[in-house]
Every structure is written in C-alpha cells, then in structure tokens.
Amino acid sequence: DPTRSDSVFNVAGQWHPPADGFRLSWLSVSDRWYDVEFTTNLLSGFVPLTGGFLATPPSNVYTDAPPATNGQGFYRIRVRQ
Fold this sequence. Notes:
Blueprint: E1 11-16, E2 21-27, E3 33-39, E4 47-48, E5 53-54, E6 59-64, E7 74-80
Antiparallel strand pairs: 1-2, 2-6, 3-4, 3-5, 3-7
C-alpha cells in the first residue's frame, strides 16, 4: 500500500551451504502471486525460476538450488494480483 509508511516489501536472503542453496523469504499478502527470477548480469535481463506461486501468509520462502556459477547473482521477486 503506497499510502502507508509501514507497508514495505522486504526480501531477506540467506545462504545455506553447500547443498541446500540460497533461501529467500518475505512477508506475503493473501490473493497475491509471486514470481522469483534470477540473473548473473543485470544488463542481460532476468530468467524465471518459478512459474509463480500463491501467497502463503504470513510469509513465503523459496530456496534456489546451489548455483552452477561462482555464486554471484541477483534475484528479483515480482508480485501479481
């Protein structure tokens, strides 16, 4: 809600070495879908890691498999109604 100062979309990430991968978590809202995307280069664009999944309030968690790259990259989470 852009009119409320306490309404913030915040994502936390944590590495769980070595086999578990990288875990993203965020507070979720009912009736929303979330898409998780990844890239190793912001100029190349993002690729989807999920086809979208329904919110599971109060929070959602997504764990990405250990990356085949050197472990560097960027995640993006899209929110849809």
